[in-house]
Amino acid sequence: MRCKNCGSIDFIKTNNIYECAFCGKKYQPKIIPQQKKTEVPIEEKNKYSSLKAYLIMPSVNSDKIRECALEILKSDENDAVSICLLAFLDREKYPENYKKGILILDAAKIESDTLKFLVPFLLENSEYIYLDELTRFLENRGLYQAYSKKIKEKHKGKNLEEKITLVVEDDIDEADDAEIEISRELLLKEGLTGKAITPEALALALFKQGENEKAFTLLDSQEKYDFERLTNYYIARCFENGYGTEKSIDMAKYFYNLAENGKVEGNEENSSESYYLLAKRYLEGGVIERDERHAYELFKRSASCGHTLAKYNLGICYKTGMGTEKSIKKAIECFEGVAKKMPSESHYQLGSIFDSLGGKANDKEAVKSYLISAANGNDKSMTNLGIHYYYGTGVEKDYKEAVKWYLRASKKGNSFAQYNLGRCYYIGNGVPKDLVASREWFEKSASGGNKQAKHYIIDNF
């Protein structure tokens, strides 16, 4: 059950009333199904609660998973789940370590509730070369039947990868029926159905899988170079980084230009992706000289085709005046337009906009936005909620509530929240005065790069 106000799934039960742990909205028992032992927040009794939130996301958030795993290892250096996940994140560099991580996981005692979110994540995101270790792990746990369908799909993917190599090494223009079928499988897997079975279509699918060298080799064997814009973008990256060819800055610039202005646009989805990726490159600088105005134009062009990340970044441009005239109205429109798909970051941006406008009405709107963002795991929004409760802006002043939000953000590694929590313990607002705890939080904040915390320690301890 989710809170209708902020979307949180954490509730606290008091006298048969269920109160949302994030926004405080109360529900009668008939609305919220009975939950076992909800007297305390889930995050206090389950060390994997924060980690779970990132493992069940549709895309892999490597930074947050690493952050959560390292935090768990601080209190339990032998935690098998965290060790395995860290090995998973570094598997490209150290593949053998990930295999060992699965073996460590297999030897550990892990609750079934933890396996329910851990196993699907590993099966979905692990490459087929780790399939044997994962299969043995599931067999030993008696879980093979429950995930047999997914394992079979992985085996099919393994066979497909082997077949793709044969297609790339052969001349696709003279492909036999079996090779055509391989192409169809790959196109279906990459959501590129409806396109002709061409070398470019297959190469584009390979690029999206990260098989840059295979894709470049396939395209380099063609006589014609009238590729669509997204394909040209990937070719430029190959020349820039030396994937499948020698590095060439001039060739990289040439194909980056085609990625924006080439004759063959391709379908709308691919074109919008090309514009978005180019916009990011113009902000990064390097082979392409940094150009904020050009980046803004490309974000706008991509967003007009429905690209979610482009529209979010367009909102950043309007909010900050990067590459264009500052417009809070247009920024709000952009963030609201992608809020359903990107609730954490979009509502954080909306909250910060309302904060900047000032006034009681805007303060209340800021709190609403931060609550939704915080319910989706955003530590910056949690910190800002703590500030609102501490000073009583948009909500009634409540030091204890401020401390609650500072603590949640601090556990996620937010150095500014750690600094504020240190001040609360130093002064005794919302918590009993405790100079030892205060210094501990200041030191954590300082180690995270917060200069205010460093000065506070020097001046007061």
Number of strands: 3
Look at the structure and give the mean pLDDT. 82
The CA-CA distance between the termini, in Å, is 46 Å
The ordered H/E elements are EEEHHHHHHHHHHHHHHHHHHHHHHHH
What class would the helix/strand composition place it in?
Answer: mainly alpha
What strand line-up does the widest sheet have? Answer: 1-2-3
Number of helices: 24
What overall geometry do the principal axes of the alpha carbons give?
globular
Write structural notes for this entry.
The structure is a single chain. The chain has 461 residues and is mostly helical. The protein contains 24 helices and three strands. The chain is globular, with a radius of gyration of 26 Å. The chain starts with 10 loop residues before the first strand and ends with a helix.
What key attributes describe this structure?
461 residues, mainly alpha, 3-stranded antiparallel beta sheet, 3 strands, globular
Short overview:
The chain is an all-alpha fold and 461 residues long. The protein is built from 24 helices and 3 strands. A 3-stranded antiparallel beta sheet has the order 1-2-3, with no helix packed on it.
Topology:
Layout: E1 11-14, E2 17-20, E3 26-27, H1 42-45, H2 49-55, H3 62-75, H4 80-89, H5 95-107, H6 112-125, H7 131-140, H8 148-169, H9 177-189, H10 199-208, H11 212-220, H12 229-241, H13 249-261, H14 268-284, H15 292-303, H16 308-320, H17 328-337, H18 343-357, H19 360-375, H20 379-391, H21 399-411, H22 415-427, H23 435-447, H24 451-460
Antiparallel strand pairs: 1-2, 2-3
Helix pairs in contact: 2-3, 3-4, 4-5, 5-7, 8-9, 10-11, 12-13, 12-14, 14-15, 15-16, 16-17, 17-18, 18-19, 19-20, 20-21, 21-22, 22-23, 23-24
